[in-house]
Design goal:
This protein is α/β, with parallel strands linked by helices and 255 residues long.
Length: 255
């Protein structure tokens, strides 16, 4: 069986490869891809794999954008950090899901389901459409957060969402940066935050930044149809938006 992994976290990539190898030595991982843009390029330029493991939140946006940009004929097993109740809707048609962190038994059960359907094509239901997926996801998103708790020495401090400029992933941690440039380490991943913050006010620029509209300083055109964003408070990073992500960013800006 030839498998494609679409996942933006290197640790998750390696762990999934390890579990697949442990489950079945005959499984061949063709590639590990971490973005919507690269996934579309790979899928349009290579023979279809037998199965795709696809994370929902990638470095340059939601993986559902892939379905907008190219035809995906291969069965997909989603991996996600959403709470289980929020993803029950994905148990439709031939789509399955694995809740992160992926467990060996759940992976084995998902592969058994795939192999059973693969061996009996007449029992395979029609592929779900992108619009169905989008609706199911939005229906299961939990309520948006209004504040966070952060440790400051031996004390706890609450930070209201209105005070947040952006979230930044760095050194295997996520830092909440306020409008006053105060920085707090919080116990969430950017993937988790993507489902907990109101998308009207927050936008995932790339694998490292989830920003608010008020944190945007200057927006400049960049090489290869990308955009360069100057953030407020300023960061030393070169903050870029991929070509594929630009249309959604501009649509978000214009709300």
């Amino acid at each position: 069986m030839k498998v494609l992994i679409i996942e933006d976290e290197p640790f998750a990539q390696n762990e999934l490869k390890r579990l697949l190898d442990k489950t079945d030595k005959a499984i061949i991982v063709l590639n590990c891809i971490d973005s919507v843009e690269d996934s579309v390029e790979w899928l349009t330029g290579n023979p279809a794999p037998d199965l795709i493991f696809m994370d929902i939140q990638l470095s340059d946006g939601l993986s559902f954008e892939i379905f907008k940009l190219t035809e995906v004929k291969t069965p997909v097993i989603f991996t996600t950090a959403y709470d289980e109740y929020a993803i029950q809707a994905f148990k439709v048609n031939s789509i399955d899901y694995l809740l992160k962190p992926v467990k060996q038994t759940e992976l084995e059960n998902a592969l058994i389901k795939f192999k059973t359907l693969h061996e009996k094509p007449e029992q395979q239901p029609h592929a779900i459409s992108f619009h169905q997926i989008e609706q199911l996801l939005s229906a299961g998103i939990p309520k948006y957060k209004s504040r966070f708790i952060a440790k400051v020495g031996d004390q706890l401090k609450h930070i209201g969402v209105a005070d947040i400029a952006y979230f930044k992933a760095e050194d295997n941690e996520v830092v909440l940066v306020t409008k006053n440039n105060n920085r707090y380490i919080i116990d969430y991943t950017l993937d988790q935050l993507g489902g907990l913050m109101d998308p009207i006010n927050f936008f995932r620029l790339n694998r490292s930044y989830l920003i608010t509209i008020g944190s945007i300083g200057k927006i400049n055109k960049y090489f290869n149809s990308r955009l360069h964003i100057d953030l407020l408070p300023a960061t030393n990073d070169t903050v870029l938006i991929s070509r594929v992500r630009v249309p959604d960013f501009l649509k978000w800006m214009d709300k």
